[in-house]
Amino acid sequence: MSEARPLQDPAPSLRQIHGDQATTGSQPLRRRRRFTVDALFADTSPRAVGTRELATAKEIRLDRIEPDPDQPRRSFDEERLEELAASIRLEGVLQPIAVRYDAERDRYVIIHGERRWRAAQLAGLESIPAIVREVGDEQRLIQQLMENILREDLNALDRAAALRRLKRQMGDAPWEQVAEAVGIKRSRLFQLLSTEKLPEPVQAEIRAGRLSEKQSRPLHGLPERAQAALAELIVEEGLEQREIERLARALRAAPELAQLPAEALRARLRELTRAAVSRAVTSSRRGSRRVSRASELVTALERLRQLLEGIDPGSLDAAERQVIAEAMQRLAPVLRRWQQSTHAAPGTRA
């Protein structure tokens, strides 16, 4: 009778045989890769290389979004809003806005993109793509200022008001720190702040975009009446910067002009402008035929301007207005060509 063999133990595990590192021959066995649910649904195509999903991007109903009451921008150009709305109707909102969530009021407050939100409403959309961010009050205002100031997308007065709010939120920090926070030079900061000292009629022109901050610089230091009169002339005549500075110097040299009634002061400024044009033509005249033709053109254009200013279109009958309108249509392309040529670099053709 043969000796009974003991029952064989179950096959030992690879870990028991080879220790912590299981091997097959001379190569270690690789552990099986574990996948998460998110990884199973991840985009592994070539187009996904170098990209990542934004978990905070949402499509939010317009009625759940509201403007930030501390937004630096205070005015919106209605015509440009309509243009943006027309684009949104055709193409949709191409760039998401940025918002923060106000838990107390259960509303999303705009950080960037109020123009897109307003235009989306005009376009008749019900929702808009948005990225939700969590930022503090000070950082939010800095971001809004950076977006608008660096793009020169705000008028100077709105930027000045926003800079003052930022200074308060920074604990009444020195202006140097405020300028550094938004990335602008100290001199530029004070140029913006100086617009707040201009009289209200001049500020209204700046807010409307008809007068730039640069154009308003020569006005500083003039009497208020002179500031308003010169600003009005700048808007009406489209004066160049050099001419604005020359008129400002003339007003400083003759302070009695500022005592004239408003209409008389504007008339005097127009005379100074015409005199400057006449002197420019005369000083460049050297007997050449070209200068003579330029002088004739300037005289004719000035005469035309005076005629147009002196005639009320309402005083003409329908037939007269029709004839003049046809003449204007013939003249318009010629004037545009001349305007392009005179703004071209010397020695070039437009």
Automatic annotation (TrEMBL):
Residues 58-149 form the ParB-like N-terminal domain. SMART domains: ParB. This is ParB/RepB/Spo0J family partition protein. Residues 1-31 are annotated as: Disordered. Pfam families: HTH_ParB (PF17762), ParB_N (PF02195). One of its GO terms (molecular function) is DNA binding. Keywords: Chromosome partition, DNA-binding. Belongs to the ParB family. One of its GO terms (biological process) is chromosome segregation. It comes from the Bacteria. One of its GO terms (cellular component) is chromosome.
